[in-house]
Design brief:
Mean pLDDT: 83
Strand content: 5-15%
Largest sheet: 5 strands, antiparallel
Number of strands: 5
Distance between the termini: 36 Å
Helix content: 55-70%
Shape: elongated
Length: 191
């Protein structure tokens, strides 16, 4: 083989680095678009792939998750700066996930506490009515908060989530604006 043929063959070869990202199915397009700004693209040569529209992904054992297989040209310019921006992007995505989870965590805990207390009141009501002699007044006094406590957690939960969402939504918006700026910087470095 002549030297010019070898040089021509080497120019056709592209080395890639690979990455797997596990994500919620609702966030796949957001992540794919975000990682494109750092030189990553979908790896269409993976063996475990499912065609979803024009996106190639693999199902995760958890049905709400998808594994994205990404690749990036190793000879990409400004790789160090892009990797730094990518780390900031990933940190912002994690912060958004934490903020979204924080909307309902406190509401769940408080609704469960109200439900448990109302169940304890109902147990006291049952013991009051089965006591010898039956204590009907105590039974009624304990049954009222018990039934109320079984109905309230649903409304209590919804109201607390609304309140928490009003506090968290501006923070999520700030993080999304930060992600936009990071992706814009990464896109400029690619061009």
């Amino acid at each position: 083989m002549a030297m010019s043929e070898m040089n021509q063959q080497n120019k056709e070869f592209v080395g890639y680095e690979y990455m797997e990202v596990s994500a919620d199915t609702s966030k796949t397009s957001f992540l794919i678009d975000g990682y494109k700004n750092f030189g990553w693209e979908i790896d269409t040569n993976r063996s475990e792939k499912v065609l979803r529209g024009n996106r190639r992904t693999a199902y995760h054992p958890n049905r709400n998750k998808v594994t994205l297989y990404l690749k990036r040209n190793r000879e990409i310019m400004n790789k160090m700066e892009l990797s730094g921006l990518q780390r900031k992007f990933e940190a912002c995505v994690r912060d958004i996930e934490k903020l979204e989870k924080s909307r309902s965590i406190l509401a769940i805990v408080l609704a469960l506490a109200v439900g448990i207390i109302s169940t304890a009141c109902m147990a006291g009501s049952v013991f009051a009515v089965t006591a010898q002699p039956p204590r009907i007044v105590l039974c009624i006094l304990l049954a009222i908060p018990a039934f109320t406590g079984w109905l309230l957690p649903v409304f209590f939960f919804k109201r607390l989530v609304e309140i928490r969402s009003k506090a968290v939504n501006p923070l999520i918006k700030e993080k999304l604006d930060e992600i936009y700026e990071i992706c814009e910087k990464g896109s400029k470095l690619l061009n």
